[in-house]
Design a protein that fits this description.
mainly beta, 1 helix, 7-stranded antiparallel β-sheet, globular, 9-stranded antiparallel β-sheet
Length: 242
């Protein structure tokens, strides 16, 4: 029932945003390149706060996540459009705020469904979230870490998971699978993100005696590219689930 409610509400958000956008805002990222700079993953307070900006259904959908511990997180979701001056993303005032269990993904509590917000990027390239409903984002400045976060990709029999962001680095998990999906080898890579080149440089090992360095980037089709020792491999999207 909760999933059905969420789908219906998001449909209303998208349709309302599209209607408003036609009259007042630049909504489509392909037509308004000024909005593309927002499409990124942004973090604050060492990843305890995260904003994921998606180009979806012709517009931009921000999702703000606040990690609370004890398998709980608070989430805000909006549908947004570029304002007429092309200086900010303005939300349609039907934003969601709810608490979610990170194990079951059930909603523990819905706080409201009439949230409103404005998103801007300051002169230092940091994203600012002006929460017009409860001022939840006050004092937070979000830095970009690329669109790698949460992605799962395959390099042959090896799955690459951009698992988390911690202490200023990406936590990247790699698993090599056998014929019956048994894990033959695993590695944890620590990666630093370069916003200028939109790449991650990561170090780790499957064998402690053979550490390696790999660079992750995106190609023109938004596929992740693994580059090691000058050789590049385009990864395939992984449909594995935990």
């Amino acid at each position: 029932m909760k999933k059905l409610f969420a789908l219906m509400l998001m449909l209303c958000l998208v349709l309302t945003a599209a209607a408003v956008a036609e009259e007042e805002f630049g909504y489509y990222p392909d037509e308004y390149p000024e909005s593309k700079v927002y499409v990124n993953t942004w973090i604050a307070e060492d990843g305890d706060w995260r904003i994921e900006m998606y180009a979806e259904d012709g517009g931009i959908k921000p999702m703000i996540v606040h990690r609370l511990g004890d398998n709980k997180e608070d989430i805000w979701e909006y549908a947004t459009a570029l304002n007429p001056d092309m200086t900010a993303l303005t939300a349609v005032p039907f934003g969601l705020h709810y608490r979610q269990d990170t194990v079951s993904y059930d909603w523990d509590e819905t706080y409201y469904e009439d949230g409103d917000a404005v998103f801007t990027i300051n002169e230092n390239g940091k994203l600012l979230w002006n929460d017009l409903k409860e001022d939840a984002g006050k004092g937070l400045e979000f830095e970009p870490i690329g669109n790698f976060y949460g992605g799962r990709w395959m390099k042959g029999d090896t799955e690459v998971i951009f698992y988390d962001w911690y202490e200023g680095e990406y936590d990247i998990r790699c698993f090599t699978y056998g014929r019956n999906d048994e894990i033959l080898a695993d590695a944890i890579l620590k990666g630093s993100y370069d916003p200028a080149s939109d790449t991650i440089t990561a170090e780790g090992f499957f064998d402690p005696d053979e550490p390696f360095t790999v660079t992750f980037s995106y190609d023109e089709s938004n596929n992740v590219v693994w580059t090691e020792n000058g050789e590049s491999t385009v990864l395939e999207y992984s449909y594995r689930t935990d």
